[in-house]
Specification:
The complex is a heterodimer. Chain A is α+β, with helices and mostly antiparallel strands. Chain A is built from 11 helices and 7 strands. By secondary structure, chain B is α/β, with parallel strands linked by helices. The chains are: A alpha+beta, B alpha/beta.
């Protein structure tokens, strides 16, 4: 690299990762409908509107004051999610149907508890629509069907960890292979050398791994070149300049990790651009791979 | 409600009535699972405050709070740490701990 600041390789045409077939990585999934319903409610709650209500219903948030000879039941302005049972399932169940402002008694553990309902707030869950999908800001949720699939697929995240990892690697390679790049030979050489330096590969190590030394070297060098492809696919802005880097840095520090002056001084600018861009793009593809393995669940 | 801590606002966020602090890192699998539970709990119990601390972005917060592993949770009332919990809890265990500490 001559100046180390401007990236000269270019992305000519990016392949669409949504069009890559991941069918080979799918495994049969049987949905637990009760769990799916619960996960759907949990998802919708994040986008719920909250309104004041006049009467307590199951799942409302009621603020109560209570007094009793039971020490735990002497509270002022205590919020409860009715029906969840974190404070007292026995008390919460008896509040259902009470009006806002109402004072009365309930029996808990055989003792009388005097309760006043100070306020009631109720969630209005949104409908599952394409508009809600857009509101989430999640690039994987483009339609109502995507939201349903997302909620029904939560329960499979653990068992799909392995297949999704393999699907992700395939997706990454397939997108890069189907995209068109104009790569600057100096930059290619730079990233290949960089990868080999970082890996510090020796003939002894190759023997330990059980791979011919030249083949291992080529594989590691190729991973450096692949970083250029990932970076180009991830950023979609050209040419890459120091200004791009400076724009990325605050986000990287916030989301990804610390970059202090010593670290910056020790690494060439290009390397950071590549690491940052590739990291973002790969995260996105990783999420997509997992999501795509649940395509049949909507 | 979920707040993301910085070195500057961390102490202030802990002064709320009741707070669950989640020390996490971006690359930790169990942290992602716990994060999903916490998002659900924040929606289910809107009166519980959740503060997330990215230990990669804010290593000093991790060091000062003696975080050796992630995820680590603190249950805090008015700035006082009631309990530290290291490792992934199930959603039910997490709810139970919140219930215990929030309602006493």
């Amino acid at each position: 690299m001559e100046d180390g600041l401007t990236m000269r390789s270019r992305l000519v045409k990016a392949a669409d990762p949504w069009r890559v077939d991941l069918g080979a990585y799918k495994i049969p999934l049987a949905v637990d409908e009760a769990r799916a319903e619960k996960d759907t409610v949990n998802f919708l709650r994040r986008y719920a509107e909250t309104v004041e209500a006049e009467e307590v219903q199951d799942q409302d948030t009621a603020v109560i004051s209570c007094s009793s000879e039971l020490p735990r039941f002497n509270r002022k302005s205590l919020p409860l999610r009715v029906g969840v049972g974190l404070f007292s399932k026995e008390l919460e169940q008896q509040l259902i149907g009470w009006k806002k402002g109402q004072t009365g008694t309930v029996t808990v553990q055989g003792k009388l508890v005097t309760v006043t309902v100070e306020s009631v707030r109720r969630e209005i869950l949104p409908e599952i629509t394409d508009a809600l999908a857009a509101r989430t800001g999640n690039p994987l949720l483009r339609s109502a069907a995507d939201i349903r699939r997302w909620c029904r697929g939560n329960q499979f995240d653990d068992i799909l960890e392995g297949p999704a990892d393999e699907a992700f690697s395939y997706l990454m390679r397939a997108v890069a292979a189907a995209s068109v790049f104009e790569k600057d030979p100096d930059e290619v050489q730079y990233t290949r050398d960089l990868s080999l330096r970082q890996a510090n590969i020796t003939p002894e190590k190759a023997e330990e791994i059980g791979m011919p030394y030249e083949e291992l070297q080529e594989m590691i060098a190729g991973s450096g070149e692949a970083l250029i492809e990932m970076a180009l696919l991830g950023l979609h802005s050209h040419p890459r300049t120091m200004a791009d880097y400076e724009a990325w840095l605050p986000r990287f520090v916030r989301d990804g990790g610390p970059v202090d002056d010593a670290v910056r001084a020790a690494h060439p600018v290009l390397e950071y651009i590549l690491e940052i861009a590739a990291g973002d793009y790969m995260d996105e593809l990783e999420r997509m791979a997992l999501f795509r393995l649940k395509e049949d669940l909507a | 409600m979920i707040d993301f801590a910085t070195y500057e606002n961390y102490q202030q966020l802990l002064q709320q009535d009741f707070v669950v602090v989640d020390f996490f890192s971006e690359t930790c699998g169990p942290c992602k699972v716990l994060s999903r539970y916490l998002e659900e709990i924040a929606a289910e119990l809107p009166f519980v405050n959740i503060v997330k601390v990215n230990t990669t972005a804010w290593p000093k917060l991790g060091q000062e709070n003696e975080i050796d592993a992630v995820p680590t949770l603190f249950f805090v009332r008015n700035g006082e740490i009631l309990e530290r919990e290291v490792g992934l809890l199930s959603r039910d265990e997490l709810m139970e701990k919140i219930g215990t500490h929030y309602y006493g």
